[in-house]
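ok so I'm stuck.
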Amino acid sequence: MSAREDAGDTGPATEAVETIQREMTSFARRARAAAGRLHPELSLVSYTLLGHLEEREEAYGEDGGCRATDLAAHYALDKSTVNRQVAALERAALIERRQAPGDHRVQLLQLTDAGRRILAQVTESRRVAFRERLAPWPAEDLERFAEYLVRYNSTAAEPPSPSG
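replied:
not stuck anymore, here's the structure
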C-alpha cells in the first residue's frame, strides 16, 4: 500500500493532483536546464531577477529599481540566495546599485544597458523555444493552458489555508 493510499487519499482527483505535481517538477527541472543552455552565466533565478527589475523600470521609470530584500520577499527566496545572485549580476555588470531618490541610505538595484541587452536576448531565445515546443498545439489548447497557468499562479501567492 502506498503512503497516499494509507492516508486515505485515492480517486481521480488525487491522481490528477499527483500527475500535476510530477509534471510541474519536471517542468521546473527542464526550465533550469534550459536557462543554462540559453545563457550559461545566467541562471533561472538570475533571469527572473533581471526580468523583475525590467518590469519595475517599465512600470515606474527611473524610480523602478528595488532593494535586494524586496526581491527576496517577492519571490519568497532566502536573502542570502538573492544576495549571491545580486553579487554575481553586479560582477557581470548586468545590474548596478544606486541611491534611492527619497532616501539616500537605501540602495536600489537597476539594470545596466548590458543587463537589458542580455535579458532581451535570453527572453527572445525563450520565446522561440516555447513557440517551437507549442507549435503543434491547437489555438484553443494554448488558450486554455494559458488560462490555467494564470489561475494557478494567481492562487500560488496566497498562503495555504489552515487544515483541519
